[in-house]
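Internal tracking record. Fields below are filled automatically when a chain is submitted to the structure queue. Please do not edit lines marked as system-generated. If the sequence contains nonstandard residues, flag them in the REMARKS field before resubmitting.
Queue: standard
Priority: normal
Entity type: single polypeptide chain
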Amino acid sequence: MTTTLDRAAQPAVVLRPARLSLTPKTTLPGLLDGAWWPRSRDLEIELPALAAALDETWGRITRVSVNPSRWPVVPRTVAVAGRVLHVGWFTEQDPDKLILLSYTVGRWDLLVIPPETEPAAAARLMTAAAIPGSVLAANVLMANEAVIGRGIRDAGRREASWEDEGGACMSTFGEPFGRSALPLSANGWR
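SYSTEM-GENERATED OUTPUT FOLLOWS
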C-alpha cells in the first residue's frame, strides 16, 4: 500500500518573531552586537525566526556558531526560508554567545539569554547587551545578572518577612516585640 501525503493540507509552520535586541548602528564598536532570547533550546526551531529577523537588518546569515554545552542537539544545517543555514560548534566559544556570519556583511556576536530566564532579567540582559561600545563580554553580563537577580530576590524576601511580622521591630534575639514591650518614655507614652 502506498501512502501519499498532501503537503498543502498540512498546517504550515508558523514562525514566532525572534525576541531580539540589537545594538544601534554607531561608530562605537563593542564586544556584543545585541542579545537573543530563544523560547527553547532547539536550534532547528529557533534559528529560522532569528535568521528571518536578521535578514532584513543585517543581510543574509549563512553560518552560525554555538557552544554545544547550552544546546542538547546541534544540527549541522537548518532549513531557513528555502535555503540552508550551516551550524558549527566550538567548545572554546563562550557558552552564552552566538556567532553569526554572512558572506557579504560580516560577523555579529549575540548574547544568548537562556529560555527559562524570567522576563525582567531577560529585559535587563537585552538592554545591557545592546549598549553601543560596551566592553562587557557575554559571560560577564550573565554573571552580573546572577548577582543582580540574587539581590532582588533577597530584597523581596526581606520585604515579605517585614510584612509577615506586621512591620514590627525585632529584638536582638530575632523576636518581634509589640508596643507593650517598648520601654516607657519620659512622658509615660509608649
